[in-house]
Write a structure and sequence with these properties.
about 170 residues; single chain; about 5% strand; mainly alpha; two-stranded antiparallel sheet
Length: about 170
Amino acid sequence: MTQETQKAPMQIAGQRFKLRVWITSRLWAQVMAGMVLGFGLGLLMSDATGLIRPDTAKAGGHWLALPGRIFLALIAMVLIPLIFSSIVGGLTGAGSGEELRSVGLRLAAFILSTTSVAAAIGVALALWLQPGTGLAAFSAGPSDARLPVSEGGRCQTSRSRVSRQPCRT
């Protein structure tokens, strides 16, 4: 064997080590790699590919979601005691009643102002975008086909009875 062919496996191993160090030292790279892997796995398990039966894909999806659900449950379990201890620590850390009143008033003003700004932004966006205006055309299509047909000003059903339901013209 020549010297170059002996160095090739070492170079590949060195490149793998560099890639591993690069990914493990950068959190954003781990997040991006996880997103790409999750997207690819989701595409492979979808009905469109037909690689996996739908019931098997659903069961696999439940198993893959399990670590995320456990993680979120652990966060929820820690969140309430953390908030409670933060509030108690803040209350006990206040020197006097006057200082506590000052902080409480500033907090109330902050909450009211941010809520007012958020509500104003929401109302402005709703007035500007007008969500739901195009949905009337979708709801009239399929349900309209079930209405009886109007003949001569009277609604006729399939059994030639006069219907009291609205009818399409």
